[in-house]
Amino acid sequence: YCADTTTRQIKVFTSPNLTVTGDTIVCVGSQTNAHIAADAEGCTYKWYYHYNQPGETNFATGDNLQVEPASDPTTYYVKVTSQKGCVAWDSVKAYLVRPRLTMIPADGRICPDQTAMLIGADAHHYSWTSSPDDEGLAMQSTRDTIVVSPDVTTTYTMTGHGSNDCPATPLQKTVTVIPYPRPPFSI
Q1: Closest alpha carbon to 117 in 148, 151, 152
Q2: pLDDT, tens digit, for every residue of 159-169?
Q3: The pTM is what?
Q4: More confident: 153 or 71
Q5: Which of 37, 111, 155, 175 is the most exposed place for a label (fewest CB within 10 A)?
């Protein structure tokens, strides 16, 4: 009987692990800035508008993406290929800042010593101002929701910002202070 032994060495390579970071909430007309990091050296990076679509050409290369979002939201896909030919995909979604401002009570009318709540939404972070100045706003000027109790009718302005600190169009609400009635007395 004859015996033959053959040995083959098979090398298995893994796809790179990816981490995507960057600005994902931006203002109309400003650019998003995304960065991708791979745990393997010498990778190539190609950015696409669609995931793994045959025949689609990439619109950007490199580990950084700077692009102005064309719609809201826009998803950008990145294909990362290691030196050994292993492929990994990831994505980043960019949203346009379109802040909203609501108020409780909805009509903004309060009596002296009552409070109103102003609620900002759909931005990365917020800044508030008032006219005339409201001292109670100072400790809340970066929150998404503020509670105010002005002494006089006051207009509050909220600016929503993107993750790259771009400012959206400011929004305003007025809190109207209705004085208590004072009945006339005669003696």
Answers
A1: 148
A2: 999 988 899 99
A3: 0.71
A4: 153
A5: 111
